[in-house]
Every structure is written in C-alpha cells, then in structure tokens.
Amino acid sequence: MPNHLTLVHSLLLFSTAFIAGSLNAVAGGGSFITFPTLIFTGISPITANATNNTALWIAAMASAGAYRHNLNIPKRELLILCITSLIGGGIGSVILLYTSADMFKQLLPYLLLSATLIFTFSEPLKIWLQFQSQKSSESPPLLILVIAQLAISIYGGFFGAGLGILMLATLSFLGIKNIHTMNAFKSFLGSCINGIAIFPFMFAGLIAWHQAILMAVGGSLGGYLCAHYARKLDPRFVRIFVIVVGFSMTTYFFIRG
C-alpha cells in the first residue's frame, strides 16, 4: 500500500467516488467504479475491499439517516434482522481476514462477475419476487428470512458489491410493498453489515484511511449534490452504463488473473 497519496491519485479517487455516489442515488453499482480505482492506484485487493467498504459505509450513513422516518415495520422483525446483519457482517469480514492475498486475487474476478450478474438481472428478479409475494397470502417463516439475511450479510462482510439488491429479496418476502420503506430497511441493514465489518478491518490494519476519507467525502457529495439531477436521467441508461462498467472490470480482472 502506498504510504502517501499523489495529487493525481487523490483527484482520481475523489472524482470516481463522486460519480459512484451519484450512481448509487439512482441505480446503485458505485462499487464497480470505486473498488477497481483503488486497485489501479496501487492498493492491494484485500485492502481495497476493506477501504471501499469503509468509504461506502460513511457515505451511506447519510442516506440511512434520511430514510429513518420510513422504517415503519414491526420492531421485532427489525431487531432480529439487525442482529442477524451484525453477526453475518462480522463473520464475513473475519473470513476475509483469514483469506490469503493470492486466494482473494483468484476469487476476485468471480466475485465481480457474480455482483455484475446480480445487478444486471436485478429488475427481473424484483418483478419475480413481487409476483411471488403477491401470490402468497402468508409470509415465509421468520427463520427462513433470518437464514437468508445471514447468508447475505456474510457475503456483504466479505465483499459487498450487489449487497443492496440481494437484501431486496429478503424485504420482498417480508411483504413490504412501499418502495421508501424497502429503501429505508435496505439502507439500515446495509449500514449494520458494513459498519460492523469495519472493526475487524481496522484492528487488522487493512483500511487505507486517507483514501477512505477522501472517497467518503466524494461519495457523500456526489450522492447529495447530483441526486436531483441524476434522477432526471433515464434509469435505463444509467443501469446500462453501470452494467458495461461492471462487465468491463470483470473481463479486465479475468485477463489480469
């Protein structure tokens, strides 16, 4: 890991985080830009993953706070899934700590591919999930939802790209129909997963703090300043842009590996 940031790297990290924050305000997928940028600036993949997680968590806290009034779901389910998210995020981050650098480099293209595919097919997935939840008059047992959220949280603590889309599956089967409530729940649980993962990363010295803070500021500004204008864009074009970037990064890391 570089001991200091050059001016060029600082501008690159800040600008890509700014763009990622804008993308996340509309369609998500900002990690497809910020994570590879950290690697391009000389950060090792595992440190880049931990740093990206930290930067996105700081930026996401603002959106989680903005949605706090929409968390109108039963407190029992909220508390259980919150605890599940904290446990899963902690497990996933510890697994990352015990993953060798060579192993993570070999897994990286497949992790990016899985996240890109999840993002690409997220709309059909959401439609199918809504259809299933409407077709069934009963919600699935809470135990099944807890197991699903635990698996998603472990993935989020380990890597995290595509995390929000996966959590929508859990929320759909909870019977939540209001999009603002879903976004509030997703943001809250995501902040639990990414937030708890920071502690193992921090104690292991994996976080590049200068890069993380710089990207957190850029991502927060991008999400705040560009959200109004970004929402005027056709979401289909934004999604296509993110998908192209995702597959491009995946192809690059497969070739590089």
From TrEMBL:
InterPro entries: TM_pro_TauE-like (IPR002781), TSUP (IPR052017). The chain crosses the membrane at residues 78-98, 143-176, 188-207, 213-230, 237-255. It is a multi-pass membrane protein. Coiled coil: none annotated. It is found in: Cell membrane. Its main location: membrane. It comes from the Bacteria. Keywords: Cell membrane, Membrane, Signal, Transmembrane, Transmembrane helix, Transport. Residues 1-27 form the signal peptide. Belongs to the 4-toluene sulfonate uptake permease (TSUP) (TC 2.A.102) family. This is Probable membrane transporter protein.
